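Researcher: Here's the sequence for the chain we discussed earlier.
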Amino acid sequence: MSSPTRGESTGVLRSATVDALLPRQRAEIAPGAVHVPGWLSAVQQRELVTACRDLARPPHGMERVRLPGGGLMSVRTLSLGRRWRPYRYTGEPVKPLPDRLVELGRLAVAETLGGPYDPDVALVNFYDDAAKMGMHQDKDELSAAPVVSLSLGDACVFRFGNTETRSRPWTDVRLESGDLFVFGGPSRRAFHGVVRILPGTGPHDLLKGRLNITLRESGRQLAHRLP
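Model: Thanks. This is the structure I predict for it:
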């Protein structure tokens, strides 16, 4: 793919035709933020999509989350390990976080930032062609451990910003099916969002739309052990 473009307000990346001619390389987008293209094999992608479809079924399945202002998020969300509500985790019942995802999270951190990792929660977001995600910080966790993001299906324009404001500077990155993105350390509280989905760009036999799995350490287990 083309090199990420820093500070562009339009979020325009080079055409898919040009991108297809260039090998996509692992890149450090910001200190502590690493993009690894094609990290998941085709077999792993299919296994994860199948698992997510099973987990998304009731009870405690995928839902549209209501924001504090009353509107609904354009993505549909599945909480694993703990139920997420803007902007907190609740004690409502959810399905447990599968061991396979825990293992993938540990491997992802070991291969990018290094160090131990013990994710206990995950959010699975489904984006249709019109869905977006506004610039936000992942700051509902008590732990400062990295966030691990796995992309499946259609590509998206992912905007990764700074830790101070939703405004520039930012970097726009095209995330494709099978890509890994990990951010921690000085970038753990960076603002980020999904500018748009690129319909029809994913493997044709995988799914229509985009699935994004983000793994985190909630820090709640540690908090319960504190005096």
